[in-house]
Structures
1.
Amino acid sequence: MSEKYVQTLERSLDVLEVLAQAEEPLGVTEIGNRISLHKSTVHRILQTLCHRGYVEKKKDHERYQLGIKIIELGIRFFNDLEIRKVAAPVLSDLVKVLDEVAHLVLPDEGEIVYIDRAESSQVVSMHSKVGRRAPMHCTAVGKALLSTMPEEEVRHILEQKGMTSYTPNTITDIDTLLVELRQIKATKISIEKEENEIGIICLGTPIFDYSGQAIGAISVSGPASRIQEKGITRIGEEMKKSGERISANLGFDFYKRS
Amino acid sequence: MSEKYVQTLERSLDVLEVLAQAEEPLGVTEIGNRISLHKSTVHRILQTLCHRGYVEKKKDHERYQLGIKIIELGIRFFNDLEIRKVAAPVLSDLVKVLDEVAHLVLPDEGEIVYIDRAESSQVVSMHSKVGRRAPMHCTAVGKALLSTMPEEEVRHILEQKGMTSYTPNTITDIDTLLVELRQIKATKISIEKEENEIGIICLGTPIFDYSGQAIGAISVSGPASRIQEKGITRIGEEMKKSGERISANLGFDFYKRS
DNA sequence: AACGAAGTTTCACATATTAAAACCGATTGA
DNA sequence: TCAATCGGTTTTAATATGTGAAACTTCGTT
C-alpha cells in the first residue's frame, strides 16, 4: 500500500525549490547532494521539468535554472489575486503621500509572504522582499495579522515557529507580545521598531475581506530616523486609512463591524 | 523500458496547468476529466501539492486552486530576472514621456511571453497580459524578435506555429512577413496595426544582451486613434531609444556592433 | 428516505521509477 | 599526449511505487 503523498512529485518539488533558492544555476550532482537523491534520478526529473519549460539548461550546457514557465504560472496567479488588484492603486497613492516603501503581505502557515510592493519615485529597488517569507513575531505586518487571531491560535503559531531573535529589540516573550497584540487589535496599527532589522522601522495594519476575516496586511517602512522625523502617528494614520480603503473595496462592512 | 520523462511528474504538471488556466477553483473530478486521469490519481497528486503549498483547498471545501507557494517561486524568479530589473526603470520613464502602456516580453519556444508592464498614471489595469503567451507573427514584439533571427529559423517557427488570423489585418503569408522583417531589422522598429486586436496599435523594438543576442523586446501600445495622434514616428523613436538604453545596460556594445 | 454526485480511502497488481553501474566527454595535470 | 578526474547522460534489472477499480463517505436533492 502506498504513502499518503506521491513520492516522485515531492522529490520533483524539492528539485524546483532547491533551484529557486539557489539564485544561480546548479548542476545535476550538486542538486542531488543538496536533496540527497541519486544523480540519475535528479537527471530524469530535470529532463522532464526542462521538457515542460519549468527549468532551463543554461547554454553553458552544464547547469540548470528555473524556466520561464514558472513565471507564467506564478505571475498569472499574482495578477488574478483579488486583494492584490484592489491594494495596488491604494498602496501607490499611499506611497505618493508618504514617500516610503509600502508592502502587501499575505499570511501562510504561520508566516507572512511579501506579495507586492509600491515604492517611492526612483529609489533603486535593492533586493526586493517580494516573494520572500518572514516570521510574524518580528514584523509589523505579522503582528497586525496576529492581532486578529484568537490567543490560542497565536500561541500555537509562536510555539511552533519559535520567536527567533534578530536584533536586540526582537520580542522573544510570548506574553509580552500578547499584551502588545491586544493594543494593536484596538488601534489597528502595529509598530515594529528595529525588531527585525537594525535601522528600519515598520508600521502595519490588517486587511479584512467581506467576511470580516483578516486576509492580509499592508505596511510602510523606512530608515528609523526618517520615519521618526515624518512622524509615526501621521504615518500610522495614513496607512490605516489606506488599509480601510482596501478592506472596504473587498466588501468589508465597517458599519456593521467596526 | 521506461519513458524518457517521469510520468508522474508530467501528470502533476498537467494538474497545475489546468488549475492555472481555470481562473476559478476546480474539483477533483473536473480536473480528472480535463486531463483524462482517474480521479483517485488526481486526488493523490492534489494532496501532495496541497501539502507543499502549491495548491490550496478553498474553505468551501470542495475545490482546489493554486496556492501561495507558486507565487513564491514565480515572483522570486521574476525579481531576479536581470533583464527585468534593467528594463523596469527605463520602461517607467518611457511611459512617463508617452503616457501609453509599455511591455517587456521574452521569447520562448517560438512564442512571446509578457513579463512586465509599465503603465501610465491611473489607468485601471484591466486584465493584464503579464504572464500570458502570444504568437510572434501578429505582435509588434514578436516581429521585433523575429527580425533578429535567420530566415530559416523564422520559417521554421511560422510553419510550426502557423499564422493564425486574428483580425483582417493579420499577416498570414510568410513571404509578406519576411519582407517586413527585413525592414524591421534595419530600423529596429516594428509596427503592428490592429493585426492582433482591432483598435490597438503596437510598436516594438528588440533588446540585445552583451553577446549581441536578442533576448527580449519592449513595446508601446494603445488605441489606434490616440497612437496615430501622438505620432507613430515619435513614439517609435522614443521607444527605440529606451530599448537601446536597456541593451546598453545589459552590456550590448553599440560601438562594436551597430 | 433513497438517490446521485463528488470527494476520499483501500488494496492488489503491474508499471513506472529507481539506483547502480557503465558510458561519455571535457578539463586538468603530469 | 595520455591518464585521471569529475560531471552529465544512458542503460538496465529489481522492486518499490503509483495506479485505477471499487468500496466508502458526505452532502445535497428529489
2.
Amino acid sequence: MTQSGGIQVAVSTVILTLRRGEDGSAVLALPLVLRTRDPYADQWALPGGWLTAAESPVDAAARTLAETTGLSPSYLEQLYAFGAVDRSPTRVVSIVYWALLRQDDVTAQIAAHRASGRAPENVRWFDVDELPELAFDHSRIIDYALWRLRNKVGYSRVAQGFLPEEFTLAELREAYESILGRQLDPANFRRQVEAAGNLIPTDRFRTGSHRPARLYRDNTDVELADRGPLGPEETSTR
Amino acid sequence: MTQSGGIQVAVSTVILTLRRGEDGSAVLALPLVLRTRDPYADQWALPGGWLTAAESPVDAAARTLAETTGLSPSYLEQLYAFGAVDRSPTRVVSIVYWALLRQDDVTAQIAAHRASGRAPENVRWFDVDELPELAFDHSRIIDYALWRLRNKVGYSRVAQGFLPEEFTLAELREAYESILGRQLDPANFRRQVEAAGNLIPTDRFRTGSHRPARLYRDNTDVELADRGPLGPEETSTR
DNA sequence: TCAAAAGTGTTGCATCTACACCCATGT
DNA sequence: ACATGGGTGTAGATGCAACACTTTTGA
C-alpha cells in the first residue's frame, strides 16, 4: 500500500569557497560539472547524484563533495528541497545542500590533483559573478544559496568556514567583505567579533608585513546555535 | 540509467494555529492524525501523505492540509527535508512544511464539521505543550517548526497569519506573546510594528469594552522579503 | 466617577558608526 | 624615517526597555 511512484530523489550541493582573484581581492567561487548526458548535455550543473537507499541525504551530499573535489567541507547544511513538477523532464526531487570549503584546503587539493595528472576534466571552478548558463533550475538554487550565506553571516560565525585553522582579524574581515560585498570598518569589526565571543586569541602572530597581527582560532565551545533543534546530526562542521 | 531505487517521498505539514485556552489566554495548537496502519499504528502523527507524480511538494502540502482540515492556510512554507535512513522501517524521505491558520477560520470550520456530523474521528487538535507521544521523528519535527516560528516572528510579520483580516494591536500583541512565551510592553510593541510599516490602519474600531481600539490590516504591498530569491512560488500566502 | 485598556512622552542604557589617534614593524 | 596595516579611544546617532502619563470608553 505504498505510492509515490516514479519520483526520484537526487542530492546536489552548492560548494562555496573564497578564491583570491587576479586583483588580489577575495571572490566567492564554486565548482560546476559539465553534464555529459541528456537532459542538458554539455551544460554546467551543480555537482550531485542520486540518493541511495543506504545513506542519508547529508551523507549523500558529503559523498558528492568528496567525489567532486576530494575534500571534506568545513560546513555543510541543507539548503532546500526543490521539487517543481517541470524542473526536469523526468520527475526529480532534489535535496540541495550548501557547503563551505577552506581556501587553503582548496588550493592544496587542486595542486595535488594537477600533480597527479588526474584532475577531473569536466569540473571547473567559477567565480559567482561570472557563472555560465546552468542546467535545470540550478541558477536559482545558487542565488538562494548565496542569499542564505549573506544572511547567515550576519548572525552566525559561518564565515570562519572559509578560513584556515588560524587567521588574523583582517583575513576574517576580508571574508565578510567578500560575502557581503561591502567594506567594513576594521575598528568596529574587531570589537563586534570580540564581543561575540566566537574567537580565541592565540599567542602567535602573522608576520611579514608591517605590524604583526594576532592569530585567532574558532571557539568550538560556542555552539553554532542557529539551527535550532536540528543539532549536529543535520549539520556537519569541521 | 536512473537510480534512487526504493526511496519514497512523503509530505507532512505542521499546521499551527492560536486557540483560546480555558483560562482565556491564547495557546498554540496543531492537528494530529491517529495512525490506523503500521508502522506506528494507533499513535499520533503529523498529517501528510505521499507525494504524487503530478504535483509539486508545496501543492501536496496544501492538498494534505485541505484533506485534513478543509482549510486553506494563511501561510505555508517549507520547513525541512528529513531523510535519515532509520526514521522509518521503509526508506522514506519526508518533505515537511509548516503552515499557519487564522483562528477564526479554524473555529468556523470545526463548527461546520461538527454540524455536518462528518467530523473526522481520527483527527484531534492538541496544544503544543500537551502533545502526546508521536510516531516517527515527528516530535523533533514539531520542535523544529516551533523554533522556526519563534525565530521568524522576530523579523517577519508571520504572526499576522494567525489573525483575521482586521485586528487590533492588542490582538496582534497577544499573538506575539503566545508565540514567544513572554509578555511584551504594549507601548513599545505599538511603536515597533508601526515603524515596521507592515500594518495599515483602518478607520474602524473594535468596540465593546473600555476605550475602542483601532483596527489594522496587513499591508500586502510590503513583501514578506524573508525568503530571499525563493519568492511566492515556494511560499503560499493568503 | 472610576476602572481599564488605548495610546503618547520621556528617560536611561546599550549598541552601532564614523573617524581621530596611537602602536609596531619591514623597508 | 616613514609608510602601512594593527589596534584603541571617543563623540554622536540610533534603537530599545522601562515606566509615567494622558485619553476614551463602559459600567
3.
Amino acid sequence: MTAHLRISTFSLKDTLECGQFFRYTKAMGTYLVQSSNRLFSLWQKGDVLFYEGVEEDFLIHFFRLDENLDSILKEIDRDLSIHQAIQKYRGMRLIRQDPWECLLSFLCSSAKSIPHIRCIIECLCRISGEKISFGTYLGYRFPEPTSIQSEVQLESVRAGFRTSYLVKASQCIDRHQLLALRDLPYREARQQLMNFRGVGKKVADCTLLYSLDFLEAFPIDTWIKRGLEKIYFSGRRTGERKMEEFVSNHFGPYAGYAQLYLYHYWRNHRS
DNA sequence: GCCCAGGGCTATG
DNA sequence: CATAGCCATGGG
C-alpha cells in the first residue's frame, strides 16, 4: 500500500508550498495532491519520500527527481541574496505540471491572493463534475478544454474578469498543442502563449517554467519586481525590460530556479 | 469605504 | 517602451 522512495536534495514542504502549484492540501504532515487526473498522498521523513495512490515514475517526473539540483544550484549561486535563499530552502524543486492545468491556474492568478487562486481552481474543477477518489479522499478532475464552453457555465466559479479568459482559452487550445511548444525557442514559445487573451509575460513565463521545461523563464510578478529593485537596482524603480536582461545575464540558463528561490525567500522574509 | 492581491488590456506620452 | 486607469471579487 505505502511505497517509498529514497531522495536527496528534496524538500517536499518547500516544493509544494512555494506558490508554484495550487492543488494540494496538508493534514498532519501528509500532503494530498491533485494533478494530471491523479489524487495521491505523500509525506517525507528525512531522505525518504513515502507515497500512496501514485506510481513512482510519475513522482520522479512530477518533482523532477531525476534532475541534478545540486549542480543547478551551484550554477545560479551568484550573489549573497540568492545564496541565502538557497541555503535556507535547498531541496525546493520545480514541479513539472500538466501544461493545460498550469496555464489555466495562472490565468486565474492575476490580481488575486494565493489562497483565493486555490479556491477559484477548486471551484473550476467542481464544474467538471467528474469525481475522483482515493481511499477516503474525494476530489474533482481538472476540466478538459472541451468541457468549458460558456461563461454562464462558470458563474459559480466567481472568477470575475478572468472568466472570459478561461472560456476563450478552452475554445482554441488542445493539450497536444501546448506540449508542442516545448520544441520552440523560448521567445517564440512565450509569444505563442501571449497570443491568448489574458496571457501576458508573467502568466506565459509561469506556464513555460512550471510545465514546459523552459528553465530560463523568469516570471516577474509584484514581489519579484520589488525584490529585484531593492536588491539589484539600489532601490530604484526599474522597467521590466532591464530586469529581464539583468536576470538572464546574471543567473543564466537556470534563471527560473533562481526565481523560485528568490520568490519564496522574499515572501517569507518580508522586510 | 478603503486598500491590496503571483496581471493584462487599452489608450496615451 | 513606460505609465495610468480599468477590469471583478474577496479579505483585512
4.
Amino acid sequence: MFVKQNVSNTHLCLEVIDIMAGSGSKTPGMRRQPRQARSQERVNQILDVAEELFIRQGYTATTTNAIAVGAKVPIGSLYQFFPDKAAILQALALRYTEQFHQCFTELATELASLPLAPYVERMIEVTDQFFREHPGYHAIFMEVQGTMPELEQLDEAADAQLIQAIVLSLSQHYPELDPQDHQAIAFVLVKAIGTLLWLSLSQEATFQQRLVAETKRLALNYLQSYLG
Amino acid sequence: MFVKQNVSNTHLCLEVIDIMAGSGSKTPGMRRQPRQARSQERVNQILDVAEELFIRQGYTATTTNAIAVGAKVPIGSLYQFFPDKAAILQALALRYTEQFHQCFTELATELASLPLAPYVERMIEVTDQFFREHPGYHAIFMEVQGTMPELEQLDEAADAQLIQAIVLSLSQHYPELDPQDHQAIAFVLVKAIGTLLWLSLSQEATFQQRLVAETKRLALNYLQSYLG
Amino acid sequence: MFVKQNVSNTHLCLEVIDIMAGSGSKTPGMRRQPRQARSQERVNQILDVAEELFIRQGYTATTTNAIAVGAKVPIGSLYQFFPDKAAILQALALRYTEQFHQCFTELATELASLPLAPYVERMIEVTDQFFREHPGYHAIFMEVQGTMPELEQLDEAADAQLIQAIVLSLSQHYPELDPQDHQAIAFVLVKAIGTLLWLSLSQEATFQQRLVAETKRLALNYLQSYLG
Amino acid sequence: MFVKQNVSNTHLCLEVIDIMAGSGSKTPGMRRQPRQARSQERVNQILDVAEELFIRQGYTATTTNAIAVGAKVPIGSLYQFFPDKAAILQALALRYTEQFHQCFTELATELASLPLAPYVERMIEVTDQFFREHPGYHAIFMEVQGTMPELEQLDEAADAQLIQAIVLSLSQHYPELDPQDHQAIAFVLVKAIGTLLWLSLSQEATFQQRLVAETKRLALNYLQSYLG
DNA sequence: TATGAATGAGACTTCATTCAT
DNA sequence: GATGAATGAAGTCTCATTCAT
C-alpha cells in the first residue's frame, strides 16, 4: 500500500502526484467521452447536482431520476454519459481528485522549497480551504466505505498523494530517519489533519477556526518530536 | 453540543456518561420493552445478525428480511421489537455505546487517579482494544453520516463521553487553562485518536502496531505543548 | 440425446414418462412452494393469464405488470411466486408437460396393449385433442427457441416422452429392427405428427380435419414401409 | 389461403413463385429504394449483421444500434433504409424468400420434367441444402410466430411456393385426384419435410443424414399410398 | 443527405412494512 | 401475541426512434 523508496529528487513529488491525476487520459467509468462543449457542460451539470443531492440525502437515497431532473437532463442522456449510478459517484470522486491535485500543483513550487514545518502548515491551510470549497469531498465517500472497491482506490489515492509528498520532504530534510519512519509520520499527519479539518467544517465558526489552529499545533508538535 | 462546566467531582464523569447510556430508562427506538428472556434473546440475536450484515454489505444493502432470516426470527416479530429498519441501526449504536461505556466504567477508578499523560495513553490502549473487538463500530456509522439525525447523536455521544472525561481531567489538573482550551484539546485528542486507531485496523500487523504507538506520540506531544 | 436401450418390459414406458413428470418433487423455478390453497389458486391464475397473453402478444411483448393486473394479483405477489419473468414461462412449460403426461398416463393401459398401428392412430387423436385444448403449447415455445436453454429441455422432454414410448413399442413388436431404426422412426413420427397437428390448428375446419386424417395416413404408411 | 386451380401449364409454376418474389416491384417495408451501389451494399451489410445477431441472440434481444454498429452504418442511415426494427426482419425474410426462389428457379427445368417421386426426392435434397446454407431461415421466424402478421405472410409464402409447385405436379400427373387432395397432399409434404429437415440440422452428423433419408422415405411412402 | 446525440416511456424488479389468521 | 404472505410505490436502466446539425 505504501510505496517505500528513498528518493532525493524534488521533482519526483509532482511525478508521484501525476500518477493518479491522469491528466488527459480517458476517464474511466464514462460510457462516452464527451467531446463537444454541450456534452461536457451536461456532464458537469449532472455531477454538480449529484454532488449536492449526495451531500443532502446521501448516495443511496438519491435517485438517478432526481439527478436527471435536477440537472435538467433526460434520464436517457444521463445514462449515455454514465453506465450506472455508481459511475456518477466515481466520476465525482475523480473530479474531486483532479481538483485536489490542481490545488497542490499550483503550490508545488512554493511547497517544494519550504522547510517541513511551514510546508505542513501551508498544507493544512490549503486542505482546509479545499474542504471548505468542496464540502462533499469526505461527506460523500464516507457513506460508501467498504461497498465500492473502485472508489476506495480513488479516495486512498488522494491521500496517498499527500502522504508521498510528505514522505518525500521528510526523506530530503531528514534522511537520518528510517524510511519506515517517513511512512508512519506522513500517514499519521495526513490522516489526522484530514479528519480534524473535515470535522471542523461542521462546528460553529469560532470553534472551527480554533480547530484549524489546533490541527497545526498537533501536527507541528508531532513533527518536532522527531525532528527537534 | 459540549457541556461546558467546571467540575471537580470525579463522579460527574460517570454521570455524564450515564446521560446516554440510559441505564434503566426506557430504551428509545424500541417499540416494546422485552421483559421476557426469550424476547431479549431474540433482540440480541437480531442485533448480532444485523451487525454482521451491515458490516459485510452495508446498511442499505441489507434487507430487514435478511436480518430476520439470519436471526431465525419471523419478520413480523422483528417489527414488534423495532418500529423500522433505522431503529435496528439505532439499537445497534446504543449497544455499542453501552459496551463502550462499560469498557470505560471498568477502568473509571484506575483512570480517575492517573495524571493526564498515562490517562491518555491508557485511553488509547483501551480504545484500540475496543475497536479491535468491535470492528463494526465506525464502519457501520460512516455509511449513514448525514442521513440519520437521530443516529448522529448517538455516534457523537460516544465520543462526547471521552471528550467530557478528558475535559474533566484537564480541568482538574490544569485549571489555569481556559474551559474553551479544555474543549478544544479534548476534541482534537479524541477525534485524532479515534480516526488513527480505526484506520490502523485495516493496516498490516506491523504497521498497525506502529500506528498505535504513533497515535500515543501524537497525543502526548500535543498535550505536552500545553502542559509542559 | 436419445436413450438407446433395448427394453422388453412394458412398465418401463411409464417409468420413462415419470422421469420428467416429477410427481411430487419440488417445482424448479418457483421461489416459494405454495402450500395453501389460496396461493396455488393464485399461481394458476397467473399462469392462465400469462398463457393467454403470451399467445396473444408473444412472450417478450407481455409485461409482468400486465400479467399481474390480468390475474388480479399485486405485482409483488407475482414475484413471490416467480423469481423473474422467465420463471413464469418455465412454470407454464412444466404445467403443459404435466398435463401432457397426464393425458398419456390415462391412456397408458389402453395404449400399451395395442399393436403399433392403432397405437399411433390413437396417439395422433390424443395429441390432436391435447393441442386443441392447449393452443399455447407450441405457440409459446416457438418464440423463445434458442434463447432459453432450460425451456428447451422441457419442450424436448415432452417430445422425448412420446419418442421413448414409441421406441418401446417398436422394440417390443419389431425386435428384428436395429435400435437405431427405432430411434429414427420414433423421432420422425413424433416430430412430423406434432408439426402437422399443430399447423392444422390454424386451418379452417374442413381442411383441419383433413389434415388430421392425412397425418394418420402419413404416419401409418411410413410405419408400414418398415413393418409391412 | 391456397390458390385452388387446375393448371396444366408448367410456366404457371414460376408465375406463382413470382407472386411473392417481387422481381422489379417496389420492395415493401423499405423506406427508400436504394438505387446507388453504396446504399445497396449498406442494406446487405445491415441484413447480414441482423441475420447473425437474430440467430445468436434472438430478434427481441438484438438492438437496432447493435445492428448499425455491426454493419458499420450510422443508426440514422439504418432508419433511412428501414422504417423500423420489424422492417429489417421483413427484409431479411424477403431475402430468404428470394434466395429460396432462386434455388428452385435454377432447378425449375430439371424438376418440371421429373415424375413426382424423383421430383420430391430432389426437392428434399435441395431444401436440405438450403437449410444447411441458411441456418437462420426457420430459427429467426419461429421467434416472432403470431406476433407479426406481415411476416407470417412472407414465411407462409415461401412454403406456398413449394406447395403450389407440388400441387401443379400432382395435378399434371394425377388429374384423377380431387384438387382438394392435391392441396392436402402438398401441404403435408411440404410441412413435414420442412420440419424434419430443419430439426435434422441440430442433430449429430450421423443421425442427421439418417433423418434426411427418413424424410424421403416418409414422403415417398405417403405419396405412394395415393399414387401407387 | 448523413449523422449520432438526444429522448422518455416503460420494462423488470425490490423490499420495507402491514395485517389477517 | 406470533406469524409470514401480501402489498405496491418506487428504483434502476434500456432502446426504438427522432431531429438538429
